[in-house]
Amino acid sequence: MDPIIPVVLCGGNGTRLWPRSRKAKPKPFLPLVGNTTLFEATVLRCSPDAGFGPPVVVTGALHLEHVEAQLPDPAASRVIVEPEGKNTAAAIALAALQLHADSVMLVCPSDHHIGDVAAFQAAAHEAAKLAAKGWLVSFGIAATAPETGFGYLKRGAPIPESGGFSVAQFVEKPDFQRAIGFLADGGYAWNGGIFAFRAGTFLDELAAHRPALAAAVRDAALQGCSEGMRFHPNAEAFARIEGESVDYAVMENTAHAAMVPAAMAWSDIGNWQALHEALDRDPDGNAARGPAELVDCANVLVDSDGPHVSVIGVRDLIVVVDKGDVLVCTAGSVQKVGKLAGAVNQ
Amino acid sequence: MDPIIPVVLCGGNGTRLWPRSRKAKPKPFLPLVGNTTLFEATVLRCSPDAGFGPPVVVTGALHLEHVEAQLPDPAASRVIVEPEGKNTAAAIALAALQLHADSVMLVCPSDHHIGDVAAFQAAAHEAAKLAAKGWLVSFGIAATAPETGFGYLKRGAPIPESGGFSVAQFVEKPDFQRAIGFLADGGYAWNGGIFAFRAGTFLDELAAHRPALAAAVRDAALQGCSEGMRFHPNAEAFARIEGESVDYAVMENTAHAAMVPAAMAWSDIGNWQALHEALDRDPDGNAARGPAELVDCANVLVDSDGPHVSVIGVRDLIVVVDKGDVLVCTAGSVQKVGKLAGAVNQ
User: Of A144, A248, A308, B251, which sits most exposed with the smallest number of CB within 10 A?
Assistant: First the structure.
């Protein structure tokens, strides 16, 4: 089988990880778990020896320098520079237009953490086999908590001679009670935004369900220009694209939606508490990056870029120091970080 | 009546207010409540128009620069520079030796906050009247909580034609149950370390109860030298002094101990929670110095010397940022601040 082409999407601001994640250098480009950035880890787990081809990265001009500085092999990596953010359907279509119609592409967000790389690679190959047969495949990430921040996939019938299933239903973010029901049912998985399909299949489905969007992306690509390994879509044509997510534009409409289950210690690192849970912690549940002294603490995360942080007598708290900003936040309040004045007005 | 001579003692490190209070610039010399430092406020509330004479300050060489920078009238203020700390009995004796035997001295720690200055001044004059008659007078500070960190004074019989009482007993720091009993009894007051006596009376009592200590201080003073308004006791003689508190050396032994009640919104600002309680707070009990954003917080104190501090969803917490150190501490853990590595190893 031909190598799988990783299509790495670098969008989003990660404001809920302020003050570490900043507009100028957001979440994907930070070493949040270990010493590797989330973007680097995304590219590295799609390695040639695991059956992947060179990546195609889709990013914006603001973050191009970070992408090129962090790519392990820039000379072999195609980088598509979007003039502005137009959501995932357009980004994936731009990448698909750079590829042979028979290439199998694996769409990977660049701001997630995956603890079990072998499980990821196994699921990727399972998904690629189905993609080669014409399926549009979502990773169905094993749900481990009643999360209300994710969409869910309802598992349908098994697809013969594969580890995959048809998708019975795409479910939008549920409320807490429904999420508990999904977890109890066992037939629901998180939709983590990782997809596999033939490039040609994707473009055909996009043209069928969103003809205007497909045509606008094609115009922007045809009138675009290359500069070394960079590709710049035409900005004027690009501006006419209606931004829509790949879920709404394609996955929820296609008759060929499949899913492969993936239990791979996945986290979207969507907030400070999620990051805390993805880190190695001591027996009291504490984790510290940077100089810190914790006394009588439990489930405390300290993340400092320099200043010494002392914490006494606290439970379930996040303390972050970054470039002259200090954040102190309970585990239960992390969703509000993105609405702080500092995060909004950066 | 002659002016009362304020004797202002500048000792102690205030490590429980680390990281704001540092060895090189401790608690008395910081504007912890409002824009005036505790030392400045101590001197200012003993003002000439309230019947006080020029102050005598006792300090160490390390803090001399802060004393002289913060004295409102350095040219009129005597400063005794101790070669080393020898506790309060020696410090007070040194000051007494600088004064006329009939002068009434009011011993004032420089690291307390007094919210009601008029009440302080009234109590000072009441104490001075008793002191002039030969009493050794302690301020009996109205106890408002079952504090275990202070000594207590048990009120004895009223002293005729005065607002004072004899002292039935000096009580060392009690445990919590005893402290609750004292509060319920109503006959006990905090010993806040504010004293009034004639200089001659004090020296006589010290000589009676601690003859070696009295002689050693006298030697150090006799062999000392003046330098402008500074007085330097002889270091060699001073080193032979046995350090002891005025309570142990004199107050608990004299037959002439008196007290005047003082309800004057007093706080020793002994830790971050005590400071928080002395500050103006918003209706949710929050107080902030420096740039801060508090969301869903109650009883939170933020004290930052520059960095912007954002706090979400927290109750009963202290957050301090000072010169590259960050402290996060629950209200119930403030006694442990002084034992942090940063506070100990400064």
Answer: A144
Query: Contact at 8 Å (CB) between A306 and A64?
Result: no
A241-282, pLDDT tens digit by residue? 999 999 999 999 999 999 999 999 999 999 999 999 999 999
B316 to chain A: which residues are within 8 Å by CB? none
**CA-to-CA distance for A273 and B95, rounded, in angstroms?**
58
Could you please state the CATH topology (level 3) that the domain comprising B5-267 is classified under: Spore Coat Polysaccharide Biosynthesis Protein SpsA; Chain A (3.90.550)
CA atoms within 13 A on the CB side of B342: 28
Contact A332 B313 (CB under 8 A): yes
Residue whose C-alpha is closest to residue B21's, from B13, B11, B31: B13
**How sure is the predictor about B144, in pLDDT bands with cuts at 50, 70 and 90?**
very high
Tens of pLDDT, residue by residue over A136-177, are 999 999 999 999 999 999 999 999 999 999 999 999 999 999
- Residues of B with Cβ-Cβ distance to A319 under 8 angstroms: 326, 328
Confidence of residue A119 (pLDDT cuts 50, 70, 90): very high
d(CA A298, CA A280): 14
Answer yes or no: do B310 and A336 touch at CB < 8 A: no
Instruction: Name the residue facing A311 among B309, B328, B341 (closest C-beta).
Output: B328
What span, in angstroms and rounded, lies between the C-alpha atoms of A46 and A41?
A: 9
List the domain boundaries for chain B.
5-267, 272-344
> Do the chains contact at A308 and B328, CB–CB below 8 Å?
no
Rg (CA), chain A: 20
**Res A85: pLDDT:** 94
